[in-house]
Amino acid sequence: MRLRYLTAAVALLAFIVMSPLAGAETLRLATTTSTVASGLLDNILPAFEKTTGIEVHVIAVGTGKALRMGSDGDVDVVLVHAPAAEGRFVVEGNGVNRRSVMYNEFLIVGPESDPAGIRGSQDAADALTKISQTGARFVSRGDDSGTHKKELSLWRDAGQTPDGASYLEAGQGMGKVLQMASELDAYTLVDEGTWLNQGSGTRLAVLSRGDERLFNPYGIIAVNPERHPHVNHAAAQQLTHWITGIEGQRLIGQYRVDGKQLFTPSASSIAGTI
Fold it and tell me: Is the pLDDT of residue 19 over 90?
């Protein structure tokens, strides 16, 4: 079953046109671009659709935008990767039943020539300090995504304020940022899933990884039906139970690109709620 991908601009129209009144039951899922760019959702969601008969309409945006769409009641459920922002989303009453789904790690990638000399570093803050001090180019997502939020927190840990001509804010998804960094011989921060699926098409290399600060957990949160009574909360709960259950977790763990596992399922190994 082919998944439907929508832009944020047409999300509200999609709700009207593709509501249960128009035919099959639908579920609007706003998610980080990495779950799409990695190929994961195309791989696992058809099984959910086949089992439940619910059509999942995936709206791939940055985590910040996905959470805002949830706050506005424009989607039924969000799948994102920014724990602090997720916690605020729940505490402020915008979402309920936050559950851990999976994790991988962030990577600092850059040109093979490595002008900042960070190759092999397991200290992300030190790596960014060297990038800043050498004036090497760095391409930022610049879009309030989970990756952008993580990048900014790493600059703070490094005691650096990224700016100047060498710091480029793309305002784009991860795939386009990788292309830009490759063309500009620049560094960037990327989630492991997108890297394994798209990194081979660039001239970049993994230069820094393994810092515990690069841990990248993903969570699913249903939009609060008390705040937005029109949302399809029942379907959101079905997806939550499925993706954190035996079948969903098995499919996440089995998903590979070129023999490499992109995500580690975490519903049973990491505490489920914030």
Answer: no
